[in-house]
Design brief:
This protein is α+β, with helices and mostly antiparallel strands. It has two domains: about 1-25 and about 200-225; about 25-195, Immunoglobulin-like (Sandwich), CATH 2.60.40. It has three helices and eleven strands. Strands 1, 2, 3, 4, 5, 6, 7, 8, 9, 10 and 11 form an eleven-stranded antiparallel β-sheet that branches. The N and C termini lie close together (about 10 Å).
Amino acid sequence: MKFQLNLVKSILAVVGVAAVSAVSAAPASAFGFGNIDGSDNQYGDAFFKDFSFDVTDGGSNNVIFNIANNTSVASMFIGSVYFDTGSNSNLLSNFGLNVDNIGKTVDFKDTGAANMSQSNNLTPAWSTDFSATKTGGQDGIHKGEVLGLSFTGNYANVVSALNTGTLRLGLHVQGIGAKGEYSDAFVSSTTNTEATPEPLTMLAAGAAVGFGTMFKKQREQAKKAE
């Protein structure tokens, strides 16, 4: 009887976690960056894999971009971020900055349609629709930090545009070299994408596995007690 009661309690706990996960989890996709071909600036060519971003469905026709610096080199930081929406001018609107940034000094300002370094080497031709640049000397995205940017936009359409390359992100990375004297630019890749599980989704999965193991132990103990 005690085993059955514990079983019911455990099932309710799993259902509760799963319900919270179903309500709170949001679709997300992860992307990487690549070098800009044809550029004579080779300083950062070995580091493009150290930078990434993910796109999350914020609900109510809202999408959130989280741009991360994953490098182990303390001097390198992202100083500017650029967006080119191609021919789809209605894809993104209402640019929002500094959305749940990770990092004490991460702070960016809207710089409109600012030109991106080396963008003249991109095909199709690059045209900046939105950009953001660090506000001060130490306010870029440094090692282990993340910048959050939001837009009004349809999540599925945004991910599709990223996968086809009709929506592109660019980065200007500074602090490259032994003395941090160089900079380079990177552009988003269409080939390095993956589904990203949300934290609560992983929590629900972990809880299910944990409770499954507990059920088995309780069953074995109940049989021994009979």
